[in-house]
Design goal:
Layout (H helix, E strand, L loop, with lengths): L13 E6 L5 E6 L4 E5 L5 E5 L8 E4 L5 E6 L2 E6 L18 E4 L5 E5 L3 E6 L5 E6 L9 E2 L5 E5 L4 E6 L7 E4 L7 E4 L4 E5 L3 E7 L6 E8 L7 E6 L5 E6 L2 E6 L7 H8 L30
Antiparallel strand pairs: 1-2, 2-3, 3-4, 5-6, 6-7, 8-9, 9-10, 10-11, 12-13, 13-14, 14-15, 16-17, 17-18, 18-19, 20-21, 21-22
């Protein structure tokens, strides 16, 4: 389609952008440390939040649209959408932050460093829990739809599920041969995870987080590795990223044979241009946030 609006106003590279839940505002962060709120219709700056404490590599609206999050180095910065700075939440976490996510109700934030996950209360700024991972975290940290659990993937190919409403230990199960780069809750009982060559779907016991059914869906040969997988918000479609292509597939057919359809999607014939010599994607952990420009 055609370009609707072009927004300018930065001299340094923009590192992150996000729409507000109602689609009326656009949030952006940059190497210059500014967080700017833009009017999506006119392209004009509505508000500038400059107290980021360094270059900003991640910005996000809360699901309720009431708060704005910016990540800068080892700090979480949160403002109300009216511009009020919630200083209590701007506490340093143990190490540079490599990912952050809102809970579904917008009341908590989960952030991850190389080997720790912190859960913060937005209203009080209190660190509710700090979890130590057994090995390097290589995926995002994700809340389940009810906000009761979080999941992340690690270097060893394991998923890690933590119940936030109990003092139970973290469930860690190795499902992959390679480090996991993508995780998602399909619903409050099913976790989807992906490495470079395989997607796994596992079902958790609704009561005590015990691992239930596990289905491994082998991907195409190594020269056609995929790099991400995610479900649509209604869980009826799955999208896979392979090199420079996106493949979207219905999860359920008329008979509800979702796993057979996923398997078909990951067969060689399902990939356009398979075998045409496309470059593969290298393995290893997910990279950290980009650094600012050198002198």
């Amino acid at each position: 389609g055609s370009i609707v609006t072009t927004i300018s106003g930065y001299s340094d590279p923009i590192t992150s952008m996000a729409f507000s839940p109602d689609g009326k505002r656009i949030l952006s962060g940059s190497w210059d440390g500014r967080v700017v709120v833009w009017d999506a219709a006119t392209g004009k700056a509505v508000m500038t939040l400059s107290d980021s404490g360094g270059y900003v590599w991640l910005v996000a609206y809360s699901p309720t649209g009431e708060h704005i999050l910016a990540v800068s180095g080892a700090r979480l910065k949160v403002w109300s959408t009216s511009g009020e700075y919630l200083a209590k939440l701007s506490q340093s976490t143990p190490g540079p932050i490599r990912g952050a996510a809102w809970s579904p109700d917008g009341r908590r934030i989960a952030c991850r460093t190389r080997d720790k996950v912190g859960i913060y209360d937005v209203a009080t700024g209190e660190a509710l829990r700090v979890l130590s991972a057994t090995t390097m975290i290589t995926s995002e940290v994700v809340f389940d739809p009810k906000g009761r659990r979080i999941v992340w993937g690690d270097w060893n190919g394991s998923i890690n599920v933590q119940d936030l409403e109990s003092s139970s230990q973290c469930l860690t199960v190795r499902l992959h041969r390679n480090s996991i780069h993508s995780v998602a809750f399909r619903n409050d009982r099913e976790v989807v995870s992906a490495d470079l060559t395989m997607v796994s779907v596992c079902r958790l016991d609704a009561i005590d987080n015990r691992l239930g059914q596990v289905v491994h869906l082998d991907g195409p040969p190594s020269e056609s590795r995929f790099v991400a997988a995610a479900f649509s918000s209604d869980h009826k479609q799955v999208v896979f990223a392979r090199s420079n292509k996106l493949c979207i597939q219905d999860v359920e057919d008329a008979k509800g044979k979702e796993l057979s359809i996923l398997g078909q999607l990951l067969s060689d014939s399902a990939w356009p241009g398979h075998g045409a010599g496309g470059a593969g994607i290298g393995g290893g952990a997910c990279p950290g946030p980009p650094g600012p420009p050198g002198p």
